[in-house]
Amino acid sequence: MALISIEQVQLDSRLAGINLTLQPGELLGVIGPNGAGKSSLLECIAGLQPYGGHIALDGEEITRLPGARRARRIALLPQRCQSAWALKVADVIALGRLPWGDEDAALIQQAADQTGVAEWLESRVDHLSGGEQARVWLARVLAGQPDIILADEPLASLDLHYQQRVLELLRQHAQGLRSVILSIHDLNLAAHWCDRLVLLDAGRIHAVGAPQEVLTPAAIRQVYQVEAQVDFSSERPLIRVLG
Amino acid sequence: MTPALTLLMLLTALVSLHVGSTDIALLDGLWQWLHGTDSAAAIVIGDIRLPRTLLALTVGAALGMSGAALQGLLRNPLADPGLTGASQGAALGAASVFYFGLFPAAGAAAPALAGLIGAGIAMSLMLLLAGPSRQAMVIMAGLAISTLTGSLLAAVLNFAPNPFALSELVFWLLGSVSERGLDHLVILLPALLIGGGLIWSQRRLLLGLSLGEQVAQSMGLSYTRGSRLIILGAALLVGASVAVAGAIGFVGLLVPHLVRPLVRNRPDRILIPAALAGAILVCLADIIVRGMPPGRELKLGVLTSLIGAPLFIWLVWQERKKWL
């Protein structure tokens, strides 16, 4: 049974007629040009937008779930994050435990170890570099041990090394009963790391399926208005823009 | 941290009960007052110093906590409790008592009662104007309502019936905890408990808001409902303290800055320490006011502003350095 099933979801002029499922253990990539509705879709699933249609978590409509219960299962890693106060890294990660109403030290330590930020637990988060902060935000999400992580362009502002690390962590999370929905611009990374892709265009689903089925030269031409060469024959898929 | 501040507050309260123009044995006076003895010591301690000390503590606690809550909610270290429009509304309400002689039955507590009502009306108008608010709208709406009530207050001053009413009003507005009785505490204490309780119930929201509205909401916290409760609580605290003691400036703005480093900058853990530190500061300031040479009394609100303004300038300077 699908972990999340989305039926005919619409959100004013941003999303229309979205039908989608998220399976357990899946890393689902959401791709599409700027303004296609990627963030809006994630915000609907996170319960931040008053959508039309249905989004069900294990068969239960998410808007009917009490906030804390929803938040324990679905966590959002927003595109941009900033702390208003000069909090310590440990306290930022502890924020992930808010839906649970505890500050479980072992889970906070575990999340810090996973993301490699353990050495800065007592440092101020605003003293860290952008890439280091990005890992702290991810640790915050991991500390809540959610079943589903909604990661909205988590790779923006990260160098190649950290991009790789973050993708490894998300891939590791999307196992067993847990899943990840990842909004991402880099089509090469999307094709390599995601189990399935959803290609959005102007608030509608253009295509959904395995990377090979979605990332065709015709689809890229139609949605991004660029000519691209697509090669799925090698171990790492290669999408190259022509001209 | 909280136990140390509580101890410091109790010590300040003891000093405040002890200090005065007449030298009186504190314990004897308190004992006689509790037993209803009609001695000079009982009157000085029980009827003058005790209400004054308790009022200074509660006003300070209310201002400190409301400042911490509003700064947390608006995620702005320069947010002042006066932002909600409640202070000006309370001042207008109290001023109307001097002008129109409202609530004669309430006696000396009439300005406080009218002030509370004024704060409530100003707050409701502000919330109505801000709508299902973003934080910037709360600031704008608060400013608009403050300006409106401020101009009405100016009009009241303009048309004061006689010079005595005018000077009484102006002195009252300068802020003080002297010449007030335990009946003022009957207004202030419930406001402190209810307002403080409302804010305390939303401390998790304040923590969640550190990373922004979106993150707070994604963690299952209700921003719309919670922010209204916080604003309501802060307005109750500020409105009641202004209504009872007039304008005691800068306490709500500065106290959170003083205690923030003690609680690792956490907006949820700052609430109680900010209330305690506010109580200590206002009580200390009042002790200084009483220690001044006799003659024209320096009003408590004037003293806190004189001390607070340079500190505020220093804070702005620190903030500025962050952006340069």
UniProtKB/TrEMBL annotation, chain A:
Pfam families: ABC_tran (PF00005). Residues 1-227 form the ABC transporter domain. PROSITE patterns: ABC_TRANSPORTER_1, ABC_TRANSPORTER_2. GO terms for molecular function: ATP binding. SUPFAM superfamilies: P-loop containing nucleoside triphosphate hydrolases (SSF52540). Keywords: ATP-binding, Nucleotide-binding, Translocase, Transport. InterPro entries: AAA+_ATPase (IPR003593), ABC_transporter-like_ATP-bd (IPR003439), ABC_transporter-like_CS (IPR017871), P-loop_NTPase (IPR027417). PANTHER family: HEMIN IMPORT ATP-BINDING PROTEIN HMUV (PTHR42794). Part of the ABC transporter complex HmuTUV involved in hemin import. Responsible for energy coupling to the transport system. This is ABC transporter ATP-binding protein.
Automatic annotation (TrEMBL), chain B:
Keywords: Cell membrane, Membrane, Transmembrane, Transmembrane helix, Transport. It comes from the Bacteria. Pfam families: FecCD (PF01032). The chain crosses the membrane at residues 54-74, 86-106, 112-130, 137-161, 181-200, 229-258, 270-288, 300-317. The keyword Transmembrane helix applies. Its main location: membrane. Belongs to the binding-protein-dependent transport system permease family. FecCD subfamily. This is Iron ABC transporter permease. It comes from Marinobacterium alkalitolerans.
